[in-house]
Amino acid sequence: MEELDIPILKKAYNLYKDFYGFRNNVPRQDRFTIWQRCENIILEMLENIIYASQLSKSEKLPVLQKASLELSFLRVFLRLCKETKVLDTRKYIYLEEAVDEIGRMLGGWIKSTKDH
Q1: In this structure, are residues 6 and 53 in contact, taking their beta carbons and an 8 Å threshold?
Q2: How distant, in Å, are the alpha carbons of 1, 3, 9, 35, 88 from that of 79?
Q3: What is the maximum alpha-carbon separation in the chain?
Q4: Which of 8, 26, 33, 38 could be cross-linked to 105 through a Cys-Cys bond (beta carbons 3.0 to 4.6 Å apart)?
Q5: Crossing angle for the helix pair 57-83 and 89-115, nearest 10 degrees?
Q6: Given this model, what pLDDT does residue 115 score?
Q7: CA dist., res. 54 & res. 82, Å (int)
């Protein structure tokens, strides 16, 4: 998959795979509420990263800002997952580190888009 040559896309793709891998350990009542919402946000963010990668410089900014907002929602929902014991602390820290790295990469991309 050659689109995965984009580092942020690779990170977001792997975040989804890791998140999906934790699914079986999630209590059934939570799997179709907050867990599903987190999963959807990751997928939407992934879509927006792919979409932004295909746009011209001048069109990228709103799409990247939407991806950044989705990442902010994800941070809050992951914290909620940890605090409601849907996610254990070890998995939360692992996912949060990936989210932080994607956030730094996204911030850099947004900054470089604004600079031009």
Answers
A1: yes
A2: 32, 30, 23, 12, 10
A3: 47
A4: 8
A5: 160
A6: 81
A7: 35
Q: Helix and strand tally (H, E) in the chain?
A: 5, 0
Q: Which residue has the tokens 């890791």?
A: 18
Would you say the pTM of this structure is higher than 0.70? Answer: yes
Determine contact, residues 75/54, Cβ cutoff 8 Å: no
Domain that holds residue 110: 2-115
Number of separate domains in the chain: 1
Extract the tokens encoding 13.
């793709």
What interhelical angle do 34-54 and 57-83 show, nearest 10? 160
What is the model's pLDDT at position 96?
Answer: 98
Looking at residue 79, its amino acid is R
Residue 21, domain CATH: 1.20.1440.60
The neighbour count for residue 52, using CB atoms within 10 Å, is: 24
